[in-house]
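Narrative progress, year one. The postdoctoral researcher (J.K.) led the effort to move from monomer predictions toward full complexes, under supervision of the PI. The following entry was the first complex the group processed end to end, covering 226 residues in total.
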Amino acid sequence: ILNVEQSPQSLHVQEGDSTNFTCSFPSSNFYALHWYRWETAKSPEALFVMTLNGDEKKKGRISATLNTKEGYSYLYIKGSQPEDSATYLCAPNNAGNMLTFGGGTRLMVKP
Amino acid sequence: DSGVTQTPKHLITATGQRVTLRCSPRSGDLSVYWYQQSLDQGLQFLIQYYNGEERAKGNILERFSAQQFPDLHSELNLSSLELGDSALYFCASSVAGSGRNGELFFGEGSRLTVL
């Protein structure tokens, strides 16, 4: 079982603020890193799948970077909106077959 | 709508009983994954099947078993249920066998309550 840490556990920001969170994972045997967005009462939805060191992915106001050598990924949200309120999960795949989910960062954006 | 269908959505049963949760993956997806989310816990990986064969196993109790059928739907069987088995059970599917590059598509979950 991989040790996947996400920080912070929760975050309250004002509408319009930009924010970022961290996902730390073991760097050995790295295959891929997934980010998911999980809204309350819904199911997780994929944001990004990243595989290469130095990868940067962007979807609208959300972007992510990946450092496989040191075992971390950052997720950035620019100009947060209330609809961005959700739990953001990262999940590395270090064994080829298994995604291990972190505990998530719960983001709450106040209007 | 992710295209992954899970039934039942809600299930209430008593300790010691046995239940079966069912999952139909997205059309074309060969891999099915089962995850458990207990109160205040993250998503815990239980088991993965690829095209009918077990591919990876996580923290799945011996009282739990799963299988994937030729039509690719999967069932998770939970027996001798205990109070601590109360949780939200998610099924997810992917095209790829390992989730290495392919994103997972999650069903809406089956909420199990053991009384």
